[in-house]
Amino acid sequence: MIELDQLTKTFKQKDGAEVRAVDAVSLTVPKGEICVFLGPSGCGKTTTLKMINRLIQPSSGRVLIDGEDTTRVDEVTLRRKIGYVIQQIGLFPNMTIEENIMVVPRLLGWDKKRSRERARELMAMVQLDPGKMLTRYPRELSGGQQQRIGVIRALAADAPVLLMDEPFGAVDPINRESIQNEFFQMQRQLGKTVIMVSHDIDEAIKLGDRVAVFRGGKLVQFDHPDALLARPADDFVQAFIGHDNTLKRLLLVRAGDAATMAQSCSPGMPLAQAFAIMDEADVRHLPVVDDAQRALGYVTRRDARAGQGVCADAMRRSWRPPRSTSTCASCSRACTSTTPAGCRWWMRVGSILGKSRRSRSPTISARAARAGTRR
C-alpha cells in the first residue's frame, strides 16, 4: 500500500519566488491496485511520482509504503525496492537485453543462474522469444520491443511497488494497445502496487483501478474510473475527460461480460424440440453445435416444423460467418464501433478458449445502460 500524506513540493525560481509544484496531495493506493496520475502537462503528476522514490525530495508531507516512512529509508535501498519505468525506455545501449533485465537483480546480489531464469520468465510474459532476443542489443529491437523490455526490467527484482512515467507514450498506437494489454495481463498475475503517470484518459480508464486527476499541483479528484466518468468533480475534470464520457464508460465493460449465450441445438436434438426453442426465442434458424460448442451448421424454422427425426437430418452446412466478431476480452466500446459495419445491432463474441462459441451481445443501447450501472 502507498500513502501520500499532505505531500508538497516547492521550487525556488531564479528571482527568489517560490512555486508550489505539488500542493498538499493526500491519497491512498491499496496493495495490488493500479493508480493512474492523470492531468495536463505541468500539473505536478510526474513530480509527485518522483517524490515516492525520492528522485525529488519533498518539501513537506510524507510518503508511506506499507506503513513505512520512506524518509527513514536509505535512498539507494529504497529505489532498489521500487521498480521504475521511465518515459523514454532508457535501456543501456552497451548491454545485451539479458544484461539490461538483470541490472537490479545483480545489484541486489542475485546469482547469475537466478537472474537469467528471471529474465527468461519475464520475456515469456511479453511474448518475446528469450532464445532469440536475450543476446541482442537494444538497437537491434523495434521500439515496441524495447518498451516491453523497459517494463519487464522494472519487474525483474520482483519489487512490490512499480512506478511508471508515461511508459507507453513513446510507441505507436498499435504497439501501445498491445503492450497495454500485455501489461494488464501481467498485473493480473503479479499483483503489484502500481502508480502510473499518463495524460491519456482512455489509458487511465483502461488500466487504472483508481484515477487521480491533477491540476496546478492540486489533487482535483481521486476516484474509481467509472465514478470519475459518471460524476466529474468540476468543470475542469469534465472538460479533461471529454463530453463523450458515456462512451468512455464502455471501456470498462468487456464483451465477454456483456454477452449472453445464444440458443443452439445438438445434432441429436429432435427437430420438434428445436422448433419449440426457435418458436420461444422468435428466431428463424438455430445453430447446430458439437460438444465443444463449435458451429457445425444450422437448422431453419421451416425445416424443423416440417421434418421428422433429429437436427442432424435437416442441418444445412452452408453457414455464412458474421461480418463482425469480437473476443471476450474486447471492450464494449470497440464492439459498439464495429457492429454498425456489419449492419447489425449485435455481434458474435468468441470464447477466450478459442472455441467458436456462438453468443450474442446486447444492443448498443443496452451496453450503455450496463456501463451506467457498473460498480
From TrEMBL:
<feature type="domain" description="CBS">
    <location>
        <begin position="258"/>
        <end position="318"/>
    </location>
</feature>
<dbReference type="GO" id="GO:0005524">
    <property type="term" value="F:ATP binding"/>
</dbReference>
<dbReference type="Pfam" id="PF00005">
    <property type="entry name" value="ABC_tran"/>
</dbReference>
<keyword id="KW-0677">Repeat</keyword>
<keyword id="KW-0997">Cell inner membrane</keyword>
<dbReference type="GO" id="GO:0016887">
    <property type="term" value="F:ATP hydrolysis activity"/>
</dbReference>
<keyword id="KW-0472">Membrane</keyword>
<keyword id="KW-0813">Transport</keyword>
<keyword id="KW-0067">ATP-binding</keyword>
<dbReference type="GO" id="GO:0005886">
    <property type="term" value="C:plasma membrane"/>
</dbReference>
<dbReference type="InterPro" id="IPR005892">
    <property type="entry name" value="Gly-betaine_transp_ATP-bd"/>
</dbReference>
<protein>
    <recommendedName>
        <fullName>Quaternary amine transport ATP-binding protein</fullName>
        <ecNumber>7.6.2.9</ecNumber>
    </recommendedName>
</protein>
<feature type="domain" description="ABC transporter">
    <location>
        <begin position="2"/>
        <end position="241"/>
    </location>
</feature>
<comment type="subunit">
    <text>The complex is probably composed of two ATP-binding proteins, two transmembrane proteins and a solute-binding protein.</text>
</comment>
<dbReference type="InterPro" id="IPR027417">
    <property type="entry name" value="P-loop_NTPase"/>
</dbReference>
<keyword id="KW-1003">Cell membrane</keyword>
<dbReference type="GO" id="GO:0015418">
    <property type="term" value="F:ABC-type quaternary ammonium compound transporting activity"/>
</dbReference>
<comment type="similarity">
    <text>Belongs to the ABC transporter superfamily.</text>
</comment>
<dbReference type="Pfam" id="PF00571">
    <property type="entry name" value="CBS"/>
</dbReference>
<feature type="region of interest" description="Disordered">
    <location>
        <begin position="356"/>
        <end position="375"/>
    </location>
</feature>
<dbReference type="GO" id="GO:0006970">
    <property type="term" value="P:response to osmotic stress"/>
</dbReference>
<dbReference type="InterPro" id="IPR003593">
    <property type="entry name" value="AAA+_ATPase"/>
</dbReference>
<dbReference type="InterPro" id="IPR003439">
    <property type="entry name" value="ABC_transporter-like_ATP-bd"/>
</dbReference>
<dbReference type="GO" id="GO:0006865">
    <property type="term" value="P:amino acid transport"/>
</dbReference>
<dbReference type="InterPro" id="IPR046342">
    <property type="entry name" value="CBS_dom_sf"/>
</dbReference>
<dbReference type="InterPro" id="IPR000644">
    <property type="entry name" value="CBS_dom"/>
</dbReference>
<dbReference type="GO" id="GO:0031460">
    <property type="term" value="P:glycine betaine transport"/>
</dbReference>
<dbReference type="InterPro" id="IPR017871">
    <property type="entry name" value="ABC_transporter-like_CS"/>
</dbReference>
<keyword id="KW-0547">Nucleotide-binding</keyword>
<keyword id="KW-0129">CBS domain</keyword>
